[in-house]
Amino acid sequence: MVAHAVLVLFLVATVAFFILNVLPGDPAAVVAGIDADRATVERVRVSLGLDRPVAVRYAVWIGDLTRGHLGTSWTQREAVEELLRQRMTVTLRLAGLGLILSILIGMTMAFLSFLGRFGHGMIRFLEYFFFAFPQFWFALLLLYVFSFQLGWFPMVGMHGRTPFLLPALALALGNGAIISRTARASLREVLRGRHVLAARSLGIPEPRIVLFHVLPLAIVPVVSVAAIQAGYLLAGAIVVEQIFSLPGLGRLTLTAILQRDVPVIQGAIVVFGLAFPLLNALADLVVGFVQPQLRYGRNR
Amino acid sequence: MALTVLFLFVAAASLAGVITGDPLTQRLDRALIPPFREGFVRGTDHLGRDLFARLVHGARSSLVVSVGSALIAAVIGTTTGILAAIDRRGGADRVLQLWNDSLLAFPTILMAIAVAAVLEPGRQQVMWTLGVVFSPVLFRVSRSAARQVIHREYYLVSRLLHTPLPFRTLLHMMPNVLPQVIVQSASLAAVAIGTEAALSFLGLGAQPPEPSWGLMLSDARRYLTQAPYLSIVPGVAAGVLAFSFQYLSDRMAGVVTALEQ
């Protein structure tokens, strides 16, 4: 697993480097500014190390990476890993709360769908609705209703006690729909099982059956889907942070793009790209905890 | 239902120039009029531009990007997927799988952002980026579908008869791979609508003054308190369109599984 993660990291770092360094465009000219004359552009190019050949720059980038250094920002003259670390907390808290909310929403929706035909149809409609409508549109809507009309939350920024609740909710709706869809299918499958029939015939109360005999089995696919979704929550945070003016990784990346701050963009891509295999590994651990017989290396 | 909605969108988008006025004409004397008000039924934005006209022209932009990127993904994904499946030595298969797995490791929007960072942002770039980023999904679908076909009797027979490979692939493999590709493509088109809107919203997609739903939403954000309808309307349009694509995809998936059994 470690070897796999290293391979993915290497690939992600390579792809990030080549996308940003081989495609056409002159970053030195952008950094120097529109009005800069040729001499200035050349000076900027040398000071950024862009006069060296691509192969050398690639070797330096990979070499630094093995030592945990992601380069130096062109505009802020600070180590990229330091910039990322500062902003990471906001994004992680946002995505983390989003993940918790989306699991809550998804599982609630899945359970509600088993309460009669009407509930089922309603939940299916809600799933489509949450999934199809743009995430950032929900963000705008929530902002209008809860911040402006009701005044429960701050309009922008990190004020108040719960600056993350609304943006996390906006993130969670779409993912909640996906989790609900998975959970519904999985619950339906497990509820058909013979052990449920046996438990019912023994007179075990229904809530107890659902909690101890259905949920642990049904949760397995939900966990793996939630892990994949967690990565998308991180990415979705980029857009939502912008709407709520939260100083997270998304803001950092977007500003870096507009300023052509290549080292920061590369660093952000590596961090996001690494998040996916890590989250998948984490999901395997959680599944192993809930369902010990599915642990790697057992019964195989 | 979903088909009717899609048809309406396509019709509106293709006839955009006929049924509405110019989406770019500014008239500051009638700015920020909500729709269905006396005086200007179609509503206006903060520059007095015709809201309905911008909405319909935005549908054109959104449809082109979503259907275009799904098509690009389908062409790349199906070709590479079938190639990987019929590759008997397995070398190309392994390389293609590695490539597609690494591509899948990136969240779509992040990849699109990275590309937008390098190229000039614009509608075309978004379409091509999304097409490439979506292709691994269709690679997987078509690869597994093609691998199943390989072991069917009719395919074995065509191999024994020495049908040339291109014919064999086109005549015997494609009909069994294509339905699933179409199902997934419709679903990808739904995702593309939201992603395109998000990118334009961030300023990395369509550029002003082009009428695009994402751009409309990004303008509307500043007028959220005065003119909430500006934020609601384009989002509903994007949502309904994506809804229809996704619903259509699910219904087609049902038909495909029914046919296979």
Number of helices of chain A: 12
User: The biggest beta sheet of chain B, please?
Assistant: none
| SSE pattern of chain B | HHHHHHHHHH
Order of helices and strands of chain A: HHHHHHHHHHHH
Shape of chain B: elongated
Give me the CATH architecture of the largest domain in chain A, please. Answer: Orthogonal Bundle
Keywords:
heterodimer; A: 300 residues; mainly alpha; 2 domains; B: 261 residues; MetI-like fold; 74% helix; 0% strand
Structure description:
The complex is a heterodimer of chains A (300) and B (261). With 300 residues, chain A is mostly helical. Chain A has two domains: 65 residues; 220 residues, MetI-like fold (Orthogonal Bundle). Chain A is built from twelve helices and no strands. Chain A is elongated. The mean pLDDT of chain A is 82. Chain B has a single domain, classed as MetI-like (MetI-like fold, Orthogonal Bundle), CATH 1.10.3720.10. In chain B, helix 4 packs across helix 6 and helix 6 runs antiparallel to helix 8. The interface between A and B is large, with 46 and 42 residues.
Describe how the helices and strands are arranged.
The complex is a heterodimer of chains A (300) and B (261).
Chain A: H1 2-22, H2 27-32, H3 38-47, H4 54-66, H5 80-112, H6 116-132, H7 135-149, H8 165-191, H9 194-201, H10 206-244, H11 249-258, H12 262-290
Chain B: H1 2-14, H2 16-19, H3 51-86, H4 91-104, H5 108-118, H6 123-150, H7 153-160, H8 165-202, H9 213-221, H10 228-260
Short overview:
Chain A is an all-alpha fold. Chain A contains 12 helices and no strands. The two termini of chain A are 17 Å apart.
